[in-house]
Amino acid sequence: MKRRSHQITGKRGDSSWVERTASRTMLRAVRFKDEDFSKPVIAVAIPYTNGTPCNDHIRNLGDLVQNEIEAAGGKAIVFGTPVVSDGISMGTEAMKYSLVSREVIADAIELMTEGYQVDGVLTLSGCDKTIPAALMPIARNDLVGLTLYGGSILPGQHGHQELNIVSAFEGIGAHSAGKIDTRELHEIESCACPGAGSCGGMYTANTMASAIEAMGMSVTGSSSHMAVDRNNQLSVDKCRDAGESVRALMKLLKKGITARQIMTRKAFENALTVAWALGGSTNAVLHLLALAREARVPLTLKDISDITARVPLLGNFKPFGRYLMNDLHALGGVPMVMKVLMDAGFLHGDCLTVTGHTIAENLASAPDCPSGQDVLFPVSAPYAPAGRHIRILYGNLAKEGCVLKQSGKKLNTMSGPAKVFNREEDALGAILSGKINSGDIIVIRYEGPKGGPGMREMLSPSAALMGAGLGDSVALITDGRFSGGTHGIMIGHVAPEAQIGGSLALVQDGDRIEINLEREELNLVISEAEFVSRNKNRQEPPQRYQSGVLAKYARLVSSASTGAVTSSFD
Fold it and tell me: Which sequence positions are flagged as catalytic?
């Protein structure tokens, strides 16, 4: 099982043993003993911070994982990574660092796994960018490894009402519209997040955790377990996940099974199917494109559209539905969902997983979908038919594509006058001050991967629209992206982005924009001559950041249509 780490520790009986004496000397100072130099070295990435509930418990979970590794005969090298909280940074300049952190975390894990030539790796995750980031370097270097999600937060309680973080964002809009008073807003603020864990709806964290379990890169059931109990202590399920994850890793090491043997094209199809069936976040598009790139699996926006075209929407989850992840957990969690989908012919049951077994073998003991509940609808009578959740649109405003989140709603072709803003804060101010009317189409541009830079999420303006009662009558279009907590008529990831000459840069206040769902197009309704004239006179704005990590990111990052990645492969 000691696949690579002998390059650091040396191999007994080999000339390298003498050569690596100094390395072992330093490792003895950090509690390595004679017998440890013959053990497989396991990297444990722990993205801990007390700056967000999503990751507040991750250090304790990491300690448990380390103990399990030592008990199983391995030796752990433990390290931390950055964490940027989307929910806390939302609507500010700080949010520009969120998607950037995905790349930084992935690179940091690669630095440690390659810098120590570890034999295996187990990465933890919580806040949503840490989840794809925890898997990207494992795929990038085809390591023996897996990832463990920290788990979902329990719902907050206010009277007889269950709350979550989006309750707070929508409360802002409701307060501005005069629908709730300051006291009620404070009650929501105080009760919505009761302890540790990632945001409880089918937002980005739970979407990606579910998709990665469906892909086979985390142990069965781990994506739908709660992070902590009502006493804010690690849940029994999550403690069990830690042990099962370590046992799975040791089995992978013994069998020599690496990430790309699991992360196949069919595995990505399984991930997309589960994400769509549950009603997941549009960020799944961005992150699964990035993961596929790291795993060297060809995957495009058109592929995603084709793969998901027949997947019905089964999940009745917030932000558009009624329930949270704890409600699904009580019914059998993601394994139950996967069994429903596999029995209906939507999943590839022969895909290998980190347990060493196939999807079908893992699901053999999963429960059937219970009757008499409306958390998960049956395939025969779905929450909404196929083609009514996340859709990929093209057209003259999105020649490389864009992403519409329909969330089961019956939307028809819609057109309206553009209200154009060059930054998120300006759009939010217009919504909160009552300057947006029913039928308007809000355009927020220069918020793309390069233009922001960092492709901020637009939960603040989208939630304000919902809170103000405009969610069904006002569309929001952006080259930025949306939180998994967003619902309404929202189109993001518009590519090419405005910063690099995308047509979004040409839109003017009052222009008519058409969202044509029959042709799956997003179009600016002006003449070709006007297009040419505006494009001829267009001036590219200077980059907003000339130094630091955002400037570096803006130089390196790819289009949203290819996952907004900074790593390149020839």
Answer: 483
